[in-house]
Amino acid sequence: MHMFDLLACVCFALVPVAALSSDADILATANTKLSTIVSRSDQKYSCKCYPGDHCWPAADKWNALNTTVNGALRSVVPAAAVCHESFQGSPTYNAEACAEVNKNIHSESWWTDQPIETMWTYWSNNTCTPDSPKERPCTLGFSPSYVIMATEIAHIKAGIDFARQQNVRLIIRNTGHDFMGRSNGYGALAINTHKFKDISFTGSYAGPGDWKGGAVTVGAGVQLRELYTAAHSRSPSVLVMGGECPTVGIAGGYIQGGGHGIMGTWFGMAADNALAFTAITAEGEYVTANANENADLFWALKGGGPASYAVITSLTLKTFPEMRAAGTILNINATHTNDSAVIWKGVEIFHSFANLYVDNGFFVYYELLGGSLHVQPFVAPNMDAAGIKAVLAPLFAALDAASIPYSTVTKDFSSVYDLYIDLFEDEPPYQNTYIGGRIFTRDDISSRNPEIINSYKVAAAPAPGYVGGIVGHIVGPGHNVSQADNAIHPAWRSASSFSIALLVVDRDVSLAQRQAAQDVLTHKTGDAMRAASPDGGAYVNEGDLNEPDWQRAYWGDKYPRLLELRRKWDPKGVFYARTTPGTEEWEVLEEGTRLCKRN
Ligand SMILES: Cc1cc2nc3c(=O)[nH]c(=O)nc-3n(C[C@H](O)[C@H](O)[C@H](O)COP(=O)(O)OP(=O)(O)OC[C@H]3O[C@@H](n4cnc5c(N)ncnc54)[C@H](O)[C@@H]3O)c2cc1C
Ligand SMILES: *[C@@H]1O[C@H](CO)[C@@H](O)[C@H](O)[C@H]1NC(C)=O
Ligand SMILES: *[C@@H]1O[C@H](CO)[C@@H](O)[C@H](O)[C@H]1NC(C)=O
Ligand SMILES: *[C@@H]1O[C@H](CO)[C@@H](O)[C@H](O)[C@H]1NC(C)=O
Ligand SMILES: *[C@@H]1O[C@H](CO)[C@@H](O)[C@H](O)[C@H]1NC(C)=O
Ligand SMILES: *[C@@H]1O[C@H](CO)[C@@H](O)[C@H](O)[C@H]1NC(C)=O
């Protein structure tokens, strides 16, 4: 039993210190030895410890942690501090270093290699951006205070233990890709897992379960392109079920959210392909989770939500023989017509065939941004150019019949890997957008495609003064995997389309303007998407933080079991990521800073 257990319920009757909040309705704050009690109207909260609180660990505690992690602890300095005159009172401006940062802000790899930066900078509160005036002081905003640049598994354990014992907010930061800001948190201790790059293959998996085929074990920091490249260089080459973005991590948020991707219609979700994990629990225990050992944790880690049950240190996934593939690009844009009604009709026709694409094992990635339809690519595994053209013939016939102009290109590849390298484009980071999204089922496509397209139109222009778009995926993770025992939303099994909705927000806006934008996303775009998919669902990795009834929206009828498992594996709330199981009693108070639990 730890100190915090004993102190968790200390009474509230301590001397209130000066209000530290700009929230007018927080009436009093009191520091206990290991938590801060805050009272807001009639509600009392126990909060994590923050800089300035009595319970915030003193320098000797941080130094001791630093010794435990062999000097890998860093005070966080935002990467763009060099573009500002000062950070925390010290001069930081360096023109050359700032130019270097500005040169890199459109490179995904640069972002993922940083200690704590989050690619969707809204979640840092944009208080130290490289392109804002240098006179403006750089501050941490919503970023952690300290980060452990872990190079050994024991460093991860040390960070978890410290956060639990000192009641400090803990953030696991892998690549910083999280669209919803979950790899960032004000005043937190972050553990950076980026350096765990081991990849090892086996031709025949010998662990528990039915799978006797090939497998690969990856460290927590391995990113998709690294894994795909390693799999391709095997002899013979193998395939792994992963996502389309080259710099997303395979073993962090991606797998814990479920993970869709290029081979998803063949192999299901990434979570369907997980054979085993090694992890460290909230209590600091090293565990293995597979079909035999800690089977309940194994189940929850496969889609039950990021940063919720344990910190993953390695993941073992199935591998499959490589295969040929064909790909097609389709564009309908201003080079073809400026009549937006014609373009939208083209979108509707394209999307109406989603079930056909999935029935043929396809994955399709497309964008509806700036009034254009850009499908790049249709992926047809195990097919040649003639094969993909035959499957797509009804699409082109329907576009022709409706007099929709378009351009298209089809290519043949000797491997899925070659197709991936040639046809998938890196997405630009450093965007300031809110996102939401929706899983559409086969039935939605066959019964309600016009409503779906209407929700896309809403997403593109949800309210006066707002601009958005759609990043779409045609994928059918139930096509070839009808059952797999894990935590992903059951709606994925009948899905054939999953769309992310984007809403652009300016970098420099007030909290009220942000709230207004969030409401537009949730209640204009989101309502339209939900109405078009009564049996659909939402995806925790690419969803709306304000999703109504998020428990059901993200997990359907699997939620009650996940809640139970969260209470079992993280009973003290060491981990926290918004809209993950068991976080109902937690709130981030004081304008996005102080993480507190309702008493
Ligand atoms: C450009 C882009 C493309 C994408 N493409 C796809 C796609 O094709 N398919 C798809 O399904 N999703 C995709 N995503 C979404 C992606 O799955 C999520 O952003 C995911 O959270 C990224 O995980 P990460 O570990 O790389 O990122 P991070 O932001 O570092 O972490 C995300 C979450 O996971 C937690 N976490 C990280 N590592 C661990 C660990 N070892 N143990 C426990 N918790 C951990 C973090 O604390 C955080 O809550 C994409 C996102 C972007 C930005
Ligand atoms: C941790 O120790 C290393 C090596 O001694 C040092 O460089 C670093 O500044 C220390 N970190 C903190 C936060 O003091
Ligand atoms: C976050 O940004 C808002 C809007 O600029 C600002 O009012 C607030 O003080 C910032 N909070 C932190 C912790 O940076
Ligand atoms: C389904 O997956 C298996 C491999 O697990 C493969 O042999 C089969 O051809 C796939 N079928 C389709 C249509 O996706
Ligand atoms: C659409 O408008 C743009 C900008 O005016 C123009 O360059 C383009 O040629 C137009 N497209 C067509 C098909 O007329
Ligand atoms: C528009 O279509 C043309 C022709 O296929 C293509 O080259 C171009 O990249 C497309 N533009 C956009 C914005 O997708």
Which SSEs are present, and which pair or pack?
Layout: H1 3-7, E1 26-31, E2 36-40, E3 43-47, H2 59-68, E4 73-75, E5 86-87, E6 90-91, H3 95-104, H4 108-113, E7 146-149, H5 153-166, E8 170-173, E9 189-192, E10 199-202, E11 215-219, H6 224-232, E12 238-239, H7 250-257, H8 264-267, E13 274-281, E14 286-290, H9 295-301, E15 310-318, E16 320-321, E17 325-332, H10 340-352, H11 354-359, E18 363-369, E19 372-381, H12 385-401, E20 407-413, H13 416-423, E21 433-441, H14 442-460, E22 468-474, E23 495-504, H15 511-531, H16 550-555, H17 559-569, E24 586-588, H18 589-592, E25 594-598
Parallel strand pairs: 7-9, 8-9
Antiparallel strand pairs: 1-2, 2-3, 3-25, 4-7, 5-6, 10-11, 11-15, 12-16, 13-14, 13-15, 17-19, 17-20, 18-19, 18-22, 21-23, 22-23, 24-25
Helix pairs in contact: 10-14, 14-15
Structural account:
- This protein is of the alpha+beta class and 599 residues long.
- It has four domains: 18-193 and 562-598, Uridine Diphospho-n-acetylenolpyruvylglucosamine Reductase, domain 2 (2-Layer Sandwich); 199-321, 2-Layer Sandwich (Uridine Diphospho-n-acetylenolpyruvylglucosamine Reductase, domain 3); 324-414, Alpha-Beta Plaits, CATH 3.30.70.100; 433-548, Alpha-Beta Plaits, CATH 3.30.70.
- Helix content is 30%, strand content 23%.
- It is built from 18 helices and 25 strands.
- The chain has a seven-stranded antiparallel beta sheet with strand order 20-17-19-18-22-23-21. A five-stranded antiparallel beta sheet has the order 1-2-3-25-24. Strands 10-11-15-13-14 form a five-stranded antiparallel beta sheet.
- Helix 10 runs antiparallel to helix 14 (442-460) and helix 14 runs antiparallel to helix 15 (511-531).
- Residues 1-24 have low confidence and may be disordered.
- Residues 119, 171-179, 182-183, 193, 220, 243-245, 248-249, 251-254, 256-257, 259-261, 306-307, 311-312, 427, 541-542, 577 line the site of flavin-adenine dinucleotide.
